[in-house]
Design a protein that fits this description.
This protein is α+β, with helices and mostly antiparallel strands. The protein folds into two domains: about 140 residues, Immunoglobulin-like, CATH 2.60.40.10; about 350 residues, Endonuclease Chain A (Endonuclease, Chain A, 2-Layer Sandwich). It has 16 helices and 25 strands. It starts with a strand and ends with a helix. The relative contact order is 0.14.
């Protein structure tokens, strides 16, 4: 849901997803002078609560005695930003956000004229599309506060539930829809190891559903074959599972639901079924309730079931899943791999290059040159990138050089994930580096692209493929392209901004620590000088203010 309101020179643009509400703010020139920031009050009409939102940054003159992890009311220590997000929102809740500009001095703050915007967050079970993101932030202050950075298996169910944030529960609920002999469930999974999911598969089969799961059993040292087989044997579902032994990487993570042998819905996304995949690094699950899309996935699954060689599956995909489409008219479109050539990857880059106002992408293992060309344009289009790291293996060093060059542009905002390792900086608690000792990916594992998400015709591309040559030409992969669905785009955008802000700060701390060995403690500005970058043309904060406020 989106609501934009402008009164007395103050603009508030609210974009509500499921767990995140993004607020874009703006002030007219007449109201800027002396403004020290914004106090934000949230009224929860669903639970009948009202409170000032809180942050960690303070005025030095009024902070008092502060302990590690302490947070403060924005009425006393305002937010000095024109783009703020509420990451504590709940799905299907009715909220009013009151935005109050504060003037005066830190000791005598005075309220200016406020603006109130009322929105309702999206229901997690949407019409046509349902999108679920895990917390993706085991390296966080909140995990440190709640669980003292202990391993989840030491804490128990509370830690797993908080980290999952509904992702695991949604997948199990999808599997449970196969509730009798009339239903079928057909999966293709790379890492197939988390017991709760395998147990749900076993129960669906025991209830009479036709259940079959193709899993990666390709014989190579770095693959999940042995762990998959052990988990399958332990769950007693070997008769329901099919080994995929040919190919390079069976990297899919999807399930197709059928009723009376007719495809009904698809679960897809980036989530591997492991502890780290569900609870550790960032991941999403995306349910599409569309018979045509589900039919295409089932046809693809039928080919995977036969364990074809790479050349044979490429030939089949070329004939049955041609892409890019000519013309591109469908609201939902499924894309499968491996394919002959890089036409699809080039098509994704062309979609990205169509952005008129803003582009948002996640990259787990570096940015392919096709997307570097899109990002490396100083044209006033705001382009965000969220990365696990700048490159992979031998390409890491060159990737660092490329990203350093690209992020020098004023319209490009890149965040490379990291965690806070010290416990003395600005009262912050020491954070975990990763969930499990063997985690290959620590923080960012999602693979999605948002093109002009706040426009009337947004494009969302999401799935298992890493926007890379390998994911296009060699691996078994799937992506879903969704256009013209603002509600879907709102959810993805909120989650992107949540993690981008989270990791951009941690990267900045790490970079400063390397340079100075000690991060200088930051306080709020005690004058309106904090606004300067937001009103300086050519500054990325200027572009952010205009875009998120709807300007």
């Amino acid at each position: 849901m989106r609501r934009r309101k402008q009164e007395s020179g103050l603009t508030v643009n609210a974009v509500a997803g499921t767990h995140v509400v993004v607020l874009g703010l703006n002030l007219s020139n007449s109201r800027r002078k002396g403004c020290l920031g914004f106090a934000l009050q949230r009224e929860d009409h669903t639970e009948d609560e009202r409170y000032w939102m809180r942050g960690m940054k303070t005025f030095k003159a009024t902070e008092g005695i502060v302990g590690p992890g302490d947070q403060f009311s924005s009425r006393e220590h305002p937010f000095q930003t024109f783009q703020w997000s509420d990451y504590s929102a709940k799905p299907d809740h009715d909220y009013t956000y009151r935005v109050v500009p504060l003037y005066g001095t830190p000791k005598t703050l005075k309220e200016g004229d406020d603006v109130r915007v009322r929105v309702r967050t999206e229901d997690e079970s949407g019409t046509g599309h349902s999108v679920f993101f895990n917390r993706g932030a085991v390296s966080s202050q909140e995990y440190a506060r709640r669980f003292q950075n202990k391993d989840p298996d030491q804490v128990g169910e509370a830690a797993y539930r908080w980290l999952s944030r509904g992702l695991l529960e949604a997948l199990i609920a999808f599997i449970q829809r196969a509730k009798g002999p009339a239903y079928g469930l057909y999966g293709a999974v790379y890492e197939f190891q988390w017991n709760a999911v395998l147990d749900a598969i076993r129960k669906a089969a025991a209830n009479g559903a036709k259940v079959r799961v193709v899993y990666d059993a390709i014989d190579k040292d770095s693959g999940p074959r042995s762990k998959n087989q052990a988990a399958i044997n332990n769950a007693n579902i070997k008769s329901r599972c099919i080994e995929r032994t040919e190919g390079t990487l069976m990297h899919n993570k999807f399930f197709v639901l059928t009723k009376n042998d007719k495809p009904v819905a698809v679960w897809t996304g980036s989530t591997n079924l492991t502890e780290n995949g569900i609870f550790g690094h960032s991941n999403c699950g995306h349910v599409v309730e569309d018979a045509s899309v589900a039919r295409s996935y089932l046809e693809y699954w039928n080919r995977l079931e036969g364990d074809p060689q790479t050349k044979d599956i490429k030939t089949w995909i070329g004939a049955h899943n041609p892409a890019p489409p000519k013309p591109w008219t469908d609201d939902e479109m499924e894309i499968f791999s491996p394919r002959k050539g890089l036409n699809v990857l080039d098509w994704y880059a062309r979609i990205a290059d169509r952005a008129k106002k803003a582009l948002f992408m996640t990259f787990a293992f570096g940015m392919h040159k096709s997307f570097q060309q899109v990002y490396e344009q100083n044209d006033g289009v705001l382009r965000f990138a969220l990365m696990e790291k700048e490159g992979n293996g031998a390409q890491l060093e060159q990737g660092r050089k490329d990203i350093k060059r690209i992020r020098g542009l004023p319209n490009v905002v890149v965040a490379v994930a990291n965690n806070l390792e010290m416990n003395s900086f600005d009262r912050w608690l020491k954070e975990r580096k990763k969930l499990t000792p063997t985690a290959h990916v620590k923080w960012i594992h999602t693979k999605y692209m948002l093109v002009d998400p706040l426009g009337t015709d947004p494009v969302v591309v999401s799935g298992s493929a890493n926007f890379s040559e390998a994911s296009t030409e060699r691996n078994d992969e799937n992506m879903i392209v969704v256009r013209g669905k603002p509600g879907v785009a709102d959810i993805y955008l909120g989650e992107f901004m949540r993690l981008h802000a989270h990791y951009a700060f941690r990267e900045a701390v790490e970079e400063d620590r390397k340079k100075r060995k000690k991060f200088k403690r930051q306080h709020l500005k005690e004058t309106d000088a904090w606004q300067r970058d937001y009103f300086t043309k050519g500054n990325q904060r200027y572009l952010r203010r205009r875009y998120f406020s709807g300007g």
